[in-house]
Design a protein that fits this description.
alpha+beta; Beta-Lactamase; Helix Hairpins; 4 domains; 6-stranded antiparallel beta sheet; 5-stranded mixed beta sheet; 12 helices; 57% helix; rod-shaped; ATP binding
């Protein structure tokens, strides 16, 4: 409404100005005629005032209006018969046409020069404002300081009390925004409903959002919205096109500054996380190496004691328990070492063509030494299967999966290793199938995550630390395969299936 009223006011002002200038030109023309000057001088006076009209008004339309008005005024006051729009001498028609065309051309040229001067001035103001903003933003050390500098300069240039609401890394507006309340004072004002502001900005269909108090311009970064520039409604409604263009350009500069700071912050955070991961890996590796030696000694000593004691001696079960627990700890240590190698990219695959039956046999023998009470069935194709793989690592995958199956299965229940040759897909599928309680549905998306453990295991089984399946996934993916888990549909239990390609991929 204010903008429309201002437009009407400008139109009325321009029309009255043209009427006044043409009136003055007519008065000067009367003076020249009484002084005996020829009519050509009067025509030049009208053209002069048409140029003044073009100079003092905005736009070409007013220059054209002044030109036509001047021609009719000359006809009315200075051609016979006077004070009418009739013409006795046809030669005046040519005079009117030449006068009108001359006035229009000269007023148009004047308007063009004036417009060019205005645009040059606007570009100068815009350049100075952007230089001032960019120069100050280079000294900012955080997001709030960027916001503070931005609203100070925008408020000064647009003559308003601008504000800025920063948005955090999770995409939510902060609880308060900073606003310029006076020339040298800024204050933080609480936000009533950050969720509503978030939804309004995300659902934006135009360049800005119109709120109750502010026009909100989002500050877009490369990947997300970094903040919201807020211009009071009463100032935003009367913004000129040049001011709106300058505001958008300044917001782009602010976005670049915020984006640089956010990226630098993320790089620093990533660097810190890498350092922490390196320290953690070194610590885990050092502890694991230090534990392996005493564990090997404990296992060897307990195995010697078992050989020296009869099976029916109560001390035999005690020695066997020591051996089993030490073997479990040794397996845990090996998993930790493998994990640190995988994380640091130091686990190098030594691929050779290996027989599937031999790999499975080696894994089962290892499990039988640890859990002889379990019976593991194997179902493999009759023909010899040779696959390019790192035998030691794939055997470790099968050992980890069998160990996981044992933790969930009673000794009298079935554990099956099923191998399928999928020739049409150039791959071999390995399935470890148990008869335990199966996976909880909520656990399935997370079981391959590091340090994730399920709470559904039997009470008489030791809990691991959630590394076995993570290592399995990393080894299988390093071989170019994939791994997945699901519950059995025919009975209780779970299936973990991994696939290895039968052909080595060649890098072209």
């Amino acid at each position: 409404m204010n903008q429309k009223s201002k437009l009407i006011q400008d139109i009325v002002h321009s029309v009255l100005l043209i009427a006044g200038l043409i009136s003055v030109a007519s008065a000067v023309g009367y003076l020249f005629r009484n002084m005996g000057f020829p009519e050509t001088n009067v025509v030049i006076v009208y053209i002069l005032f048409v140029l003044l009209s073009a100079r003092l008004t905005q736009g070409y339309i007013y220059g054209i209006l002044a030109s036509i008005t001047a021609t009719f005024a000359f006809n009315y006051f200075f051609t016979v018969p006077h004070f009418t729009f009739s013409v006795d001498d046809p030669n005046y028609i040519i005079t009117f046409i030449i006068m009108t065309m001359t006035s229009i051309v000269t007023s148009a040229l004047t308007s063009k020069v004036k417009q060019d001067a205005i645009e040059a001035k606007e570009r100068e103001i815009e350049t100075k404002a952007l230089y001032r903003l960019t120069n100050h933003l280079t000294d900012a050390s955080n997001m709030h300081e960027i916001a503070s500098i931005s609203i100070s300069i925008i408020s000064d240039i647009i003559s308003c009390k601008a504000a800025c609401l920063c948005i955090d890394e999770n995409g939510f507006p902060e609880q308060s925004f900073i606003q310029q309340v006076s020339h040298n004072k800024q204050s933080y004002i609480s936000v009533e409903n950050i969720v509503q502001i978030k939804h309004r900005i995300e659902d934006l269909r135009m360049g800005y959002d119109i709120g109750v108090e502010f026009y909100d311009w989002p500050i877009y970064g490369q990947e997300s919205i970094l903040g919201v520039m807020r211009i009071p409604k009463e100032n935003a409604e009367i913004l000129k096109e040049s001011q709106a263009r300058l505001l958008r350009t300044m917001i782009e500069s602010i976005a670049l500054a915020m984006d640089r700071f956010r990226q630098a912050e993320q790089r620093m955070k990533s660097k810190e996380e890498m350092v922490q991961e390196r320290y953690r890996g070194n610590l885990l590796r050092a502890i694991s190496h230090d534990l392996r030696t005493p564990l090997s000694g404990i296992m060897g000593t307990s195995e010697m004691l078992m050989d020296m004691i009869k099976n029916d001696d109560p001390r035999y079960e005690l020695a066997k328990g020591i051996y089993t627990d030490a073997d479990w700890l040794r397996s845990l240590v090996e998993n930790i070492l493998n994990l640190t190698r995988l994380q640091e990219g130091r686990l190098v695959l030594n691929k050779q063509m290996e027989a599937v039956e031999e790999i499975i046999g080696g894994a089962i023998n290892h499990i039988y030494r640890r859990s002889p009470e379990y019976e593991i069935s194997v179902n493999v194709p009759e023909e010899l299967l040779l696959i390019p793989m790192d035998a030691k690592l794939v055997e470790q995958v099968i050992i980890n999966l069998l160990d996981n199956a044992i933790k969930h299965t009673l000794p009298q229940n079935e554990i099956l290793i099923l191998v399928e040759d999928e020739k049409e897909l150039n791959q071999v599928a390995f399935s470890i199938i148990d008869s335990g309680e199966g996976f909880v549905t909520d656990d399935l998306p997370n079981i391959f995550q590091m340090f994730y453990t399920s709470n559904t295991r039997r009470a008489d089984v030791k809990h691991g630390i959630g590394l076995g399946l993570t290592i399995c996934e990393a080894i299988v993916k390093a071989h170019g395969g994939k791994i997945e888990a699901c519950n059995r549909t025919d009975t209780a239990g779970a299936t973990i299936k991994f696939i290895l390609p039968t052909k080595e991929e060649k890098n072209e």
